[in-house]
Every structure is written in C-alpha cells, then in structure tokens.
Amino acid sequence: MQQGEIAKIVDQVIRERRSVRGFLPTTISSEVILEILDVAARAPSGTNTQPWQAIVVTGAKKEDLSRELVETALDPARDADHSQEYSYYPDRWIPPYIDRRRKVGYDLYGLLGIEKGDKEAMERQFARNYTFFGAPVGLFFTIDRVMGQGSWLDYGMFLQNVMIAAKARGLDTCPQAAFCKYHRIIARHLEITPERMLVCGMALGYEDTSLVENSLRTERESAANFTRFID
Ligand SMILES: Cc1cc2nc3c(=O)[nH]c(=O)nc-3n(C[C@H](O)[C@H](O)[C@H](O)COP(=O)(O)O)c2cc1C
Predict the structure, then answer these.
(1) pLDDT tens digits for range 165-196
(2) pTM as predicted
(3) Is 205 in the pocket of ligand 1 (CB under 6 A)?
(4) Which of 57, 72, 122, 140 lies at a C-alpha separation of 20 to 30 Å from 189?
(5) Spatial distance between the Cα atoms of 229 and 127, rounded to a whole number of angstroms
(6) Distances in Å between the alpha carbon of 212 and those of 100, 110, 151, 182, 209?
(7) What pLDDT is attached to residue 133?
C-alpha cells in the first residue's frame, strides 16, 4: 500500500473514533476482544514495562455488577460511602478547560432534551455509565500501585490503541472514568487484588445509530492554536 493511502486510512480511523453512549446488544467473540488487546499492547511503554492489565466482563457477571453500581449511584446514602482513588480532574478549574468541559456537557444533555438544572435527569443519564450504555462487553483496566506516573502515560497510549483497534473493526467504545468512584464494589465483584488500582472502565460494542446521544460530535482546537514552532 502507498504511504498516502496508509495515512488516509490511519487518519480516518483516528478521526472516526468517538465516545459512543448507546450500543446494540450484538455480542463480540473473545477472539476479537483478544485480537484488539493484542494489537493495543504494541503501545510503547517506558523500558517496555507494559503496565496494563485488562478484565473483560460480559453476561450475568456484568449484569450483577451494573445493578449494584446503578443502585449505589442513584442512592445518595450509599453513594456517600464512595470516593475516587486518584484525581482525574483538577481541584480548581480554569479556562479554557472548564469551558470545554461545560460545552460537552451542555451539548450532550441538549441532544437528550435534558434541561439545565434538571439534576435528576442528569443523574439518571450519568448512571447509564454503569450499564456500559448497553454495550455487551465491559472492559476494566488496572495498574499495579507500585508503578509511577510515567506508567500512566504509557497506559493512555494503550487505551487509545484499544479504541482505535476496535474502531478499525467496526466496533465503538466509550472510555469511562465514571467507574473509578466505585472501585471497591468493582474490586469485590471482579476479584481485583489490593496491590492493583482501577484505572478506568470502557464500554465496547456496536453503536446504536438510532440514538440521539450518538449524534454528539465534539470539537477540537486546531493544532496551530496549541503549537509553537521555534527555529
Ligand atoms: C480516560 C477517559 C475517561 C472518560 N470517562 C468518561 C465517562 O466516565 N463517561 C462518559 O460518558 N465519557 C467519558 N469519557 C469520554 C469523554 O467525555 C470524551 O472522550 C470527550 O468528550 C471527547 O469526545 P470523543 O471521545 O467523542 O472524541 C472519558 C474519556 C477518557 C479519555
């Protein structure tokens, strides 16, 4: 294949990947899941440490876990018992990040017809995270606690590869930090040992194109606006 054609295909897969929040129940074989994880593991990592570990949850185990997570998320008394293990977001928000965060929220809730201030509807939509938005496959990713900050950088590359390899096979994903708050429940259901930390979850499946939330398209700053050339 010519270089130009390769670039076109790779760019297209990268551009077409997006977070999907509504899936068809169509199942995915373990072989395909392993193929995706195998190619994703070609991600670089400092001194080839490969700090990733994946758990694939399907069927009744996934249903059980989802049930407890949704119940917990929607019950303030039970929810109060849980907290994040690592801070994904800054303690103090500043522009332009806060503006971008708000925009994606307004856009998603806008598509769903959820009015600003309708906390209950927002919480219900957020709780859909815990059923993997209907995806047949739930992925969880863990890291050994001894690993340093650099390994989290490696992890991000691996996760992007998972999403790109899935997209190249006609599958969609949603990376999900929403699970992190309930790491104790997840550890109990999936027998995650204490020396490992939950990095995030991820929904994997075929997009339900009939759902309005999947028409969300997020924006990006152009490279010229975040890049400086120094000669
Ligand atoms: C590590 C990570 C965690 C995320 N967690 C969630 C989540 O819990 N729920 C969700 O709906 N989207 C989640 N997202 C998706 C982001 O909202 C999304 O990537 C961003 O808005 C850009 O949109 P796009 O992925 O469609 O390009 C997460 C993304 C990343 C990279």
Answers:
(1) 999 999 999 999 999 999 999 999 999 999 99
(2) 0.98
(3) no
(4) 122
(5) 44
(6) 21, 10, 37, 28, 8
(7) 98
